[in-house]
Amino acid sequence: MLGAVAMAAAVVLVVAVSGFVPSPYLNPLLIFQNGSVVTSGAEWPARRVEVSTLVQSTLLGTMPDNPPPTLNSHQVINRTSAGDGVVCTFVELVFDTSGGGPVPTVSLTVEILEPVDPPGSKATRPVFMTQWNHRQWAVYAVSRGYIGVVYPASDAKDVAPLFQKAYPKASFALIAARAYVASRCLDFLLTCWSGVDPTQIAVSEWQAEPGVCSTRYTSDRSGRQLSRLAYRGPLPLYLVKLLR
Q1: Residues 217, 242: contact at Cβ < 8 Å?
Q2: Which region, left, alpha or beta, applies to residue 95 given φ > 0 means left and ψ of -120 to 50 means alpha?
Q3: Looking at the predicted structure, is the pLDDT value of residue 237 above 60?
Q4: Nearest-CA neighbor of 65 among 152, 170, 160, 150?
Q5: What is this structure's pTM?
Q6: Which one of 180, 206, 212, 226 is least enclosed by Cβ atoms within 10 Å?
Q7: Is the distance from CB of 126 to CB of 197 less than 8 angstroms?
Q8: % of the chain at pLDDT higher than 90
């Protein structure tokens, strides 16, 4: 009780001396921590770093400092026709996580559903990514011409804890670790899977964890740039490129 009273008295003293009023809320997106306003595109990168740091320190936990893990191998383990003109492929991905600590590799299986194009076609398609609890959404997306991607980062199937173990120095909680899984799958799609339109990547939200997928990708460390990213969820779109 005395400790709480002393803390309250200290806060009152700080306010009286400096005029600072403590707040539990983060600043609006375009206001720096020092109170200045972002007035141009040239100032945004500095504010972006600030927001990324704040999101990690106050909400999601820190992401791995290491470069993204190298994809050691990818192997098709099953491919079947799933209806007229649609192919369903399961691909096993093995990532080298030895740079993070005690876990040398992490493997996961991603399902890719896609319409069949005529032989020789070089057409690209938009991508709809979701996790296993919402696999049916990917099926609906394929019926509308998308490539549907289902990755294991949900209650039904989840490899996120393996990445948490692989990077013990990172404090990222499960919600951010699942976002990390989605990012690894997106890296694979953009580098190893033909027919993907890199400018049209859509990610659905998770019912229990809204907005987690908005954290899953940024182009800074890989040199790639997504010019358009569709996102449905309650968190603002600006979170899309804050973390990797």
Answers
A1: no
A2: beta
A3: no
A4: 170
A5: 0.75
A6: 226
A7: yes
A8: 43
